[in-house]
Every structure is written in C-alpha cells, then in structure tokens.
Amino acid sequence: MNPATVPRVSGNCGGCKMGDGRDAAIIPKWKRHLARMLVGASFLCALGTLAALAVIDYADVAKRAGGHRPEQSVASMAALRNDWEVAEFIYDSGTSTGFGGRRNIPGFVIRLPKSARQRPEELQSGLQVYSRLSTDTGCIVDIVRNPRGAGGTLWAPRLRMPTTPVASDPCHGSVFDLARGGEVIFGPAPRPLDRFTFEVRGDKVVITGFVKSKDPEVSLRNHSHAR
C-alpha cells in the first residue's frame, strides 16, 4: 500500500480501528467533557421532573382533602367496652411535617370511667385518644395499668403513683396520668400527652386530626397522689 494513500491519524488510540480497518482518530478531550456534562444534565433534569410531579400530586391530594390530615379508622368500640381498656394503633399522617420527622404516629384509644371524663369528647363518647410519643423525648410511652405494682418501665416512686393507669416514658422517666387528661405527674416532660381528634362512627373510632397539647393549667409534676 502506498503510504501517501493512508489517512493520517493524530494521536494514538491504542489500536482502535474504524469500520474499514483504519485507525480511529481520538475524540478531542473537550468533546468528551461536553458529552459527560450533557448526560449529567439530562439525569438531573429527569430527577427534577419526577420531584416536581410528586410535589404537584401531594398538593393536589391536600387540596382535595381540604388541607386536613387523612382520616383513619383505628379501633372498634366492641374492643373498648370496659373502663381502662386500651386499643393501640399506628396513624399514617400522610406527611412527616409537624410530627418530629415522623409520618407514622403511634397512638392509643382508652375507655375512661365516668370519674375521669373531663373534656367534651370524653363526656360524649367515654373515650380519649392519645399519641404515644413522649412530649419530652419523643420516645414511645408504655401503658402501665397498675403503677403501684411491680414490673414495667416505671421509674417514679410507686407509692407516689395513682392507682389508675398511667403512660410511662422509658427513656427519661416522665409519667403521664391518664385519669387527668394525660398530665405530667413525674419527670421532665414539659406538657401533657398530645391528642388526636376523633369521631365515633357506628362501631368505629375514626381519627380526624391531631392536637398538640399546651402547658398544663395545674402542674402535678413530682407531687404525690392520694386516691
């Protein structure tokens, strides 16, 4: 072959061949960088589109729901016939916003005796629905049915506890009196247990919202009980 007829190739591609057997010319470095930038930009654009669609979809759901939390049936009245009976549940809030980064909120429904009913919903239904997240640590509280008995995660002096069920924070020891609206009776928690708003529809207890508790009107923290 006449060397004059062989196309000149700049650089060295390590033996790369074209379709006709000729050495392939190296792609300039700036073209390779441009190609990588275009691929990266396309990927980021696709991710942005997916994120925008997700936001639009959630906004549409919130708009159709009137801005309220999703309603959820969490318990049956048949399981709450007797005083102090408890039905635990996990409430799917639909978003982690406003719940300490949580989407799924543990809670419980409790049947109150007449002597412990204070709020309008308690007087009407005989029930109260609380979050199981401690207002001190966010730990999941335990329901202690016999605070003066042995066992459980109760840190507080048992002789200073009521004879009725309490909720106990196993992390920092706060105790919430379920016969007094979830008030703090021991430990560092700054306020009572948070509550869910609810309705009784037929045999079902339906969650309709979430209420963050305020500071107690009467602080019973670290005070003994005589019952």
Please characterize this protein's 3D structure.
This protein folds into 2 domains: 1-67; 72-211, Rieske Iron-sulfur Protein (3-layer Sandwich), CATH 2.102.10. The protein contains 2 helices and 10 strands. It has 227 residues and is of the alpha+beta class. The longest helix has 36 residues, at 29-64. Residues 48-67 and 216-227 have low confidence and may be disordered. The protein is elongated and about 85 Å long. The N and C termini lie far apart (112 Å). Strands 5-6-7-8 form a 4-stranded antiparallel beta sheet, with no helix packed on it. It has a 3-stranded antiparallel beta sheet with strand order 1-10-9, with no helix packed on it. A 3-stranded antiparallel beta sheet has the order 2-3-4.
List the helices and strands and how they pair.
Elements: H1 29-64, E1 72-76, E2 86-92, E3 104-111, H2 120-125, E4 127-131, E5 142-144, E6 166-168, E7 175-177, E8 183-186, E9 195-201, E10 204-211
Antiparallel strand pairs: 1-10, 2-3, 3-4, 5-6, 6-7, 7-8, 9-10
